[in-house]
Amino acid sequence: MIKNFILPCLLLSTIIVSAQQNLVQYVKPIIGTEKMGHTYPGATLPFGSVQLSPETDTISYEMNGKYNGDVYKYCAGYKYEDKTITGFSHTHFSGTGHSDLGDFLIMPTQGKLQLNPGTASNPKGGYRSAFSHQNEVAEAGYYKVKLDDDNITAELTATTRVGMHQYTFPKSDQSHIILDLMAGIYNYDEKTVWTYVRVVNDTLITGYRQTYGWARTRTVYFAMSFSKPFKSYGQKNYDAKQAYRGFWGKFNQSQNFPEVAGKKVRMFFDFDTQEGEKIKIKMALSPVSQENALQNMRAEISGWDFEKVKAQAQSTWNKELNKIQVNTSNDNKINFYTALYHAFINPTTYTDVNGEYKGLDQGVHKADGFTNYTTFSLWDTYRALHPFFNIIQPARNNDMVKSMMAHYDQSSLHMLPIWSHYANDNWCMSGYHSVSVISDAVIKGTYNGDANKALDACVTTAKHRDYEGIGYYMDLGYIPAEKSGVSVSNTLEYAYDDWAIAQMAKKLNRMDVYEEFIKRSGNWKNNFDQASGFMRPKLADGTFKKAFDPKDTEGQGFIEGNSWNYSFFVPQDPASLIELMGGKKKFAMRLDTLFTMHLPDEFFAHTEDITREGIIGGYVHGNEPAHHIAYLYNWTDQPWKTQAQVRHILNMQYKPAADGLGGNDDCGQMSAWYMFSSLGFYPVAPGSDVYALGSPLVNNAVLNLENGKTFTVETVKQSDKNVYVEKVLLNGKVLATPFIKHADLMNGGKITFYMSSKPKKS
After folding, report:
1. What are the φ and ψ backbone dihedral angles of 752, each rounded to 5 degrees?
2. CA distances (Å), origin 276, targets 169, 171, 186, 272, 515
3. Is residue 170 within 8 Å of 179, Cβ to Cβ?
4. Measured CA angle at 219 (ends 215, 222), to 5 deg
5. Host H or E run for residue 705
6. How far apart are CA 666 and CA 101, in angstroms?
7. What backbone phi and psi angles, to 5 degrees, belong to 28?
8. Are 105 and 183 in contact (CB under 8 A)?
9. Where is the Glycosyl hydrolase family domain (predicted)?
């Protein structure tokens, strides 16, 4: 890797080195692993199928037949506050507020064999081990930790479809590798539907596991190879309730038996090890078959050189990170490149090396001319992550839209994805926001598929009457409060999505569709209560619900938010919202109140996704619906307030520490907000080609675009105090308004912000 040249401070403030820099050094995957961030510290590649990372407990999804609230802390499997590690599994979500995965947990041990994981209070009662953060290293594409109880050093790295482990053992004739096929995230007693394992020889096993979790029909196939032959192996089936067992009892299946099947299986592999001996494992995954998993392994890691695979992983990350080169303080660089890292984790590749994947119809499909992706957390990521991809990862975003269209083609319900996850839709959250992603990609010229077919898919999805109140929305122009607990937020989000459909239709000259959906996009007005000035639940008879508190997050018709935040959710038409709220001056005062009011704890006590750390006044940055709000001052003739609030949020909500995120990163959405805002602009309404300007945090930055051009962000007189923008030049010409267009970026050039400690109010 090319190291940074040491330049005089004066030059550093004005020059970005265009050659590839060593940017991996600024990525700290540990950021967000404490408190609410829900990120994981393990090894993965950009948009990789494998996310190889430690688990720190075995919390069950249910307790005494009810939801166990503590499981929410383990959405990513790892919690920084914990003192023990239970093992290393191969699939994880990054930053989500619900979870699944945690497949194929591997744990090295030595001494007496223990096949249960033990507990946090009694770790020596099982195979888990104590660990210390002092003996832990988390980097892009690499993770290392010492397992104190067994004196074993664990190291992890990955390719796109293969996780590679390296375990350094002490001298022992009782060294073990445990493969726990029961373990999982958001686990419960019956989650594993079936497991199959075939011991091919003394270094290779293959198999699959089917689970019923967030994705209800999810099967993952694997091929697992050891660098050294095991001397013996065995398994234990913990399914005492299995009524029918056939005649397999003729064999001793617990020891050295080559075929294992059941719902609750743990396996072990025994070795003799010398002091400091390294045992390596390759675990390849496939959505299609054991054969494909083995093909993935052989294609991506042919040998056993762990350091070579690690170096390749970090080189791959460094290439991706260099798509944006920023000059700023060290802490800000850590925040920026860790955000860029988190943004490039999801969506995840869902295609084997031969192009095959399993579709929603449970059939095997071949991606023709594109990479198929899954893990679309669209309620979160349509806002900033996919718009960010349209600038920095357009080819991938093109493939992601094609993946959504494949999802639509395979869907028995003829719907685009809501929350796509391993050949399933888990239907989480509201809106049909894939239409926003598709519209944004069509309007910005990213999508090269059949745009008219994509529009038809959007329209069909938006007219699916029996999905979450769409029929009421179409007939009445809103969803009655007595028909849905999230009636207001659904109406608002549908209205925005309909506007996005209208913009795409206009681009394609489908004016009949445009007229229909631009009319639907005004439905947000039906939930606006002029008397209170808030978005409010409306009953089927057309009257507003009487019991109403705009601060409350519970029982008020909103999902993961309150009316104070959702009342500003009209990103498609801020001018009309401002008019309804009394004009620009009153609207700005209302925004001021949001950012300065005190929101008592009682109003978010029952909401997992909102904590005090993610709140500024009454503005909730730790959740997505309000992410555009700070930029709305630009429509009030008071853009300096956008500048001040954006810088305040950047500095308050993002820190280079384990607890450095004020809320769930949500598959990169929080990170995308940070990067856009650090660079000085933000997509308030995806589906539009306009970005609102803010207050850049960087000294300067170079965006290396896929079209071969560069776009430079430059600041003059940048400092912690100079948060206000005196003037902005685009390619040397003064901008008259605080907005730029997508073409301004993609054509290359330079935007220069002249910073000041005083707001410019004229």
Report:
1. -120, 125
2. 5, 7, 36, 12, 71
3. no
4. 135
5. none
6. 16
7. -125, 90
8. yes
9. 292-756
Q: Are 53 and 88 in contact (CB under 8 A)?
A: yes
Closest CA to 222 of 167, 141, 297: 297
- The DSSP H or E segment spanning 364 is strand 364-366
- Tens digit of each residue's pLDDT (9 = 90 or more) over 421-457: 999 999 999 999 999 999 999 999 999 999 999 999 9
3-state helix, strand, coil in the chain (%, to 5): 30, 25, 45
Alpha-carbon distance 563 to 46, whole Å? 37
Could you tell me the pLDDT band of residue 16, with boundaries at 50, 70 and 90?
very low
* 85 has pLDDT over 60: yes
Rounded to whole angstroms, the Cα distance separating 676 from 387 reads 10
Q: How many CB atoms sit inside 10 A of residue 119's CB?
A: 15
The answer to whether 222 and 260 have CB atoms below 8 angstroms apart is no
Contacts of 82 (CB under 8 A, 6+ apart): 56, 57, 120
Range of weakest confidence among 239-243, 595-599, 670-674, 746-750: 239-243
pLDDT at 18: 59
The mean per-residue pLDDT over the stretch 67-84 comes to 97
Say how far apart CA 557 and CA 651 lie, in whole Å: 32
Q: Say whether pTM exceeds 0.90.
A: yes
Whole-angstrom CA distances from 151 to 26, 111, 171, 411, 458 are: 30, 11, 10, 50, 56
Amino acid at 715: T
